[in-house]
Prior knowledge:
The protein contains 1 helix and 44 strands. The strands form 11 sheets. Strands 3, 41, 42, 43 and 44 form a 5-stranded antiparallel β-sheet that branches. Strands 8, 9, 10, 11 and 12 form a 5-stranded antiparallel β-sheet that branches. Strands 4-5-6-7 form a 4-stranded antiparallel β-sheet, with no helix packed on it. By secondary structure, the chain is an all-beta fold. A hairpin with an 8-residue loop joins strand 30 and strand 31 (383-388).
Amino acid sequence: MRTLASIKKQVPVQQILCFFAVVMLLSPAIAWSAADSGFGDSPACPNIKLNQPVPADGRIVGFGIVPDGGERVSFLGDLETDGLFDLFTVPASGGQAPIRFDIDTPRAQGLTGLPIFSPDGSRAVFRGEFDTEGVRELYSVETTDGGGTAIKLNGPLIGDVQREFVITPDGTQVVYLAEELSNLEELYVVPLLGGTSRRINNPLKSSDVRDDFQISPDGSFVVYRSRNGSFRTELFSAPLAGGPPVLLNDPLQELGGVLQFQISPDGSTVVYRSDQEVDNRFDLYQVPIGGGTVERITGSEVEEGVDDVFGISPDSTHVVYLNPRFVEGDFGIDIYAVDLVGGTPVRLNDPLPAGGFVSDFSIDPSSATVVFEGNAETNQFLEIFKVSITGGSVTKLSGDLSAADGTLGFSISPDGTTVVFGVDRDPGTGAVIQELLAVPLTGGPVRSLAGPLLPNRRVEQIDYSPDGQSLVYAAETDQDRLELFAVPLDASASPRRINQTLPAGASVEEGFGPVFQFSDDDRYVLFLADQETVGVTELWSVELACAAAIDRIFGDGFEETSIF
């Protein structure tokens, strides 16, 4: 799941409200009928409860998808012993009791968070307090029914294994942060099936490895930040096959440091943001991931330092970034792109009005187009624009909006054909998404997908259906009540609610992670809700394809009414 461009209206760039999206895969399409519309009707597609009965003091705190191409779902709950959280698996279609992972180790506390899964879904890696209460260690276990014996991955600890751990793309190793050989958080790698852990970083003197480490897409390198002896944060890469770390950044000025970095999608290059030359003037630099010549890719356009919002195009050829600047006392933020093969940075936006700024952007899957949000025509509200990544004519996509309506975030569909964005239709609310709209990336009429909602209600999350033809979203329908809806991306039908009718005081719950997820076979939407007994959160699924049969029963001419 990827986080996409979104930001609140008329607030600083850093206060970002995230949309979520999933990659487009093949699955049956969703269809809609009037039988599903409205808040009071039961959904035409039945909801399936997946968990066993929840005891009085028990709770389900989160769930995740097993990425094995099937319908298995894992969830975390203290359903057998109060306060001891176990991992369970169950098929999204229901029909059988959940199976608890029978982890054959002493259980002092249980799992301390949701697991992550190997790329083929065959093993789960998790932290837990099993051997010693209060000491969080790292384990690997099979995801076959029952799990079997868990393998402890970390070596002897001085402190804890931290919550940041990643399985390599080939599914053979786990990289994690832990206080293992010292009382500092350091970076280690260990085989997924267990073995001797190996420290990746050079021994540290006084400060932890930062928790934003990344593994290259091909699994060859891990890139990380840590402080040197003079407390300046530097950037390193280390081959996961073994070998010493390599310093990636050039020598830093006395107060300099590396603040952020990204690895290019092709795994060849690291782009980082640093004030390595001038204190508090943050430029962007590129360097080969294995080390080598560092090249500054920002130019004379940088006055105050580039913003922390930057991104590499999917084809790894360009970097797009936001550049704050002061002109005769007027503050603004422009958007630039630069060719990584060599070239001069190009400003993508037209000249901004006084006080105007670009707040966020996203690059389309083809790497040809940049969509950005900003008050580029008027400083009264935000709008959505597109431009070629190499520069040129700017096109407004969001249509005619008023100051009360300004945009509040956007998302490009996985196939790159559609831009979905949110607006606030109620001037009395504090910048919340009240309506979802869509427009072709090529430009054209704006169509309403959902809303406007009732006053003081907002959309919380959106995801594209796995077939890319529809949008599933979570929205407030009452105070403290969240519900799930689906709507075709072409706005050919009204939204329909997909959770069942909620009793007073009930809601779809956020839990750990996203509000809802799709099963790995693309057939089900999974979510938590207390929709059967208020205050008892349970795990539910709904089949996407069932609505297609309903559409065939009622026919295309059946009257539809909006839920909003």
